[in-house]
Amino acid sequence: MDETSIMGLTGLLHCQLIEGQKGVEEQLDSLEEFNKATGMSKDLLYLCALSGQKRGKSSDEILQYLDKIVDLQNQTMKHLALGIEYYIKLEPELILNVTKLYLQYSPNEPLNLGQPLPLPLKQAKDILQPLVNACPVQKEPLYLMAKVKYLSGDIQAAISLLQKCLDINPSFSDGHLLMAQISIHYGNYQTASKSLEVALSHDFQIREQIQYILTKASVLKTEKKYDEAIKLLNSALVNSKKRGSNLATNNKISLILQMVDIYTLNDQTTEGSKLLTELLEDCRETADEGRIMIANAQLAEARGDIDAALTLLRD
Questions:
Q1: What is the per-residue pLDDT across 68-120, written as a single tens digit (0 to 9) for each?
Q2: What are the C-alpha distances in Å from 63 to residues 52, 103, 108, 248?
Q3: How many beta carbons lie within 10 A of that of residue 88, not counting itself?
Q4: Contact 146, 161 (CB under 8 A)
Q5: Domain ranges of the chain
Q6: How far apart are the first and last CA of the chain?
Q7: Which of 135, 145, 275, 290 is the most buried (most CB within 10 A)?
Q8: pTM of the entire structure?
Q9: Coil/strand/helix, residue 219
């Protein structure tokens, strides 16, 4: 099978994967095995990562594919001067897709400015930066870099980039959603609520995004609409299972921890404890275990069991 045939087959499998056709995963496995000796293309690596996510593979397996794409991209671009060939080999669509996948495995909450970046966030920044430099007025790269800056703790840089996006396209719903998240970070819940309304007015489907759901739940929580917030978060978990889609681990954890927090505020610590116990079993001996243990300690404190809270923190 020559390079042209592989490119055509990769493109076909990408379409079939998006459409959810049966048997695509097996064809990708065969194509991956066939190309291991000669080296997999960036497009094939991306499809393997996407397929792995749909099949519920571990984050480590998926990130290995993405990291190989970054290495290949760096090798391709490092000796190229800015010009026609540079722009051709930049492959903007692939870079945007890879960045979006990396962000699904990055923290949902911003770090403190100057704090070391988790590898997925660092890789997202590294592969995206050349595209932002080459296309400084393109909405999508600016938006994704704003998201990277926000999660990195550089909030002011995120706001500046985001404002450029909204100047280019005032009806850009994802931009308004990110602005709502930034408002939540600063404790401006009324402003966040208005940004959510604007985002929803331009794109009704945005209400299905996990970040919209988490942000909306935060607003409802401050308004003490606990039952409504719990219903919203629980629906997101249930709907993801019905659709057969696998939530990225950090999204699932964020949804559940938000539910636990709201249960605690609503004096429903039993329900919160049950959720945390199940989550801890799923995430035992992973990087997320500590985050869940802290939430468990906070729940024990809310129940008035200070000794249990201290024991959990010591462990």
A1: 999 999 999 988 888 899 998 999 999 999 999 999 988 888 999 888 999 99
A2: 10, 11, 17, 12
A3: 9
A4: yes
A5: 1-79, 236-315
A6: 55
A7: 145
A8: 0.86
A9: helix
Angstrom distance (rounded) from CA 200 to CA 272: 30
Residue pair 65/46 in contact (Cβ under 8 Å)? The answer is: yes
Residue recorded with tokens 């990277």: 148
Instruction: Report DSSP state, residue 116.
Output: P
Other beta carbons less than 10 A from residue 212's beta carbon: 23
Q: Which two tokens stand for residue 168?
A: 């280019």
Helix 42-54 to helix 59-77 angle (10° resolution) is: 160
Helical ranges in the chain per DSSP H? 3-19, 24-35, 42-54, 59-77, 84-90, 92-104, 119-134, 139-151, 155-168, 173-185, 189-202, 210-222, 226-242, 249-265, 269-282, 289-302, 306-314
pLDDT by residue, tens only, the chain of 315 residues: 445 566 777 778 888 877 777 778 888 888 788 777 678 889 989 999 988 888 888 888 999 999 999 999 999 998 888 889 999 899 999 999 999 999 998 888 899 988 899 999 999 999 999 999 999 999 999 999 999 999 999 999 999 999 999 999 999 999 999 999 999 999 999 999 999 999 999 999 999 999 999 999 999 999 999 999 999 999 988 887 666 555 667 788 889 889 988 988 888 888 888 888 888 777 776 666 667 777 777 776 766 667 666 666 666
